[in-house]
Amino acid sequence: MRKLNLKKQWDQATPSWVDFVRTGKDYHRDELNNPTMFEILGNISGKKILDLGCGEGYNARIMAKKGAKVWGVDFSKKMIDFAIQKEKKDKLGIVYHPADAYNLKMFKNNTIDIVVCFMALQDIRDYQKAIKEAYRVLLKSGRFLFSIPHPCFETTEKQNYKRKLKDKLKEEMIHFKVKDYFNAHSYTVPWKMKRLTQHFETTSFHRTLTHYVDALRDAKFLISRVKEPKPSKKGIRKHPIMKLHLIIPQSVVVEAVKL
Ligand SMILES: C[S@@+](CC[C@H](N)C(=O)[O-])C[C@H]1O[C@@H](n2cnc3c(N)ncnc32)[C@H](O)[C@@H]1O
After folding, report:
1. Residue bearing the CA closest to ligand 1, atom 14
2. What is 6-258's CATH topology?
3. Pocket-forming residues, ligand 1, beta carbon under 6 Å
4. Three-class SS of residue 116?
5. Could you state, in order of their start, the residue ranges of all structural domains in the chain?
6. 170 C-alpha to center of ligand 1: Å?
7. What is the pTM of this model?
8. Residue 33 per-residue DSSP state
9. pLDDT digit string (tens) for 117-137?
10. pLDDT by residue (tens digit) across 171-221?
11. Can you spell out the DSSP letters for 65-90?
């Protein structure tokens, strides 16, 4: 199989992604996934946090504003450039590194309180190595917290149904075509929403829940929490299409602890 240049895809996506995230167009983040991630994170004041696959730094900035010392790592140099530009403008003490999530050589063993990975593990080719690196840099009892698109419902077909659902939520239209669940494979994510300033494509990796649990276990993590986020009433009022996720989860959030 042709080896895709994943880094180039994300570099090309960056300007459109930055607008998407920074102008509130990524409502699944703001109204669905972040509330659950931050609820589980709890009080992070004074904590040392590493944001793996940090993108342009949106969530890193939220964590820094909550009093954490934050480092961000992303393999897209373009994403990191945008993150650094923002840091220079509004200083929060965040340190960014353009690096692969599975090569965190700039971090010593046993130094970080929490490693977070917001909606990026599914895009990381060698997720097992990345999980092992997260384990290595964490302090004993440190936590690894990540969100991923729910592996049972992340098929592209659902996007067509979502489009049909725009005006009215018709239950009979909610069909998720699950193809080849047990087979780990890569797939193209077509970012074609009208909300984007420019359309782009990225590559994600479908893995089963078992794959993720096994990788955590192999790294010696113990899973402490699993949540399937639901939208808030406020979120649904603002974006009625999100009603869908009262019935079918969009994502899954996992917390694991280094023993
Ligand atoms: C869907 S975006 C999420 C970005 C960010 N976590 C957020 O919530 O805004 C996925 C990110 O993972 C990064 N990524 C993909 N593979 C990576 C790897 N091997 N190492 C580091 N970052 C990676 C991409 O560059 C992209 O910024």
Report:
1. 53
2. Rossmann fold (3.40.50)
3. 6, 10, 21, 53-55, 58-59, 74-76, 79, 100-101, 118-120, 123-125
4. strand
5. 6-258
6. 33
7. 0.93
8. I
9. 999 999 999 999 999 999 999
10. 444 556 677 899 999 999 989 888 999 999 999 999 999 999 999 999 999
11. HTT-EEEEEES-HHHHHHHHHHHHHS
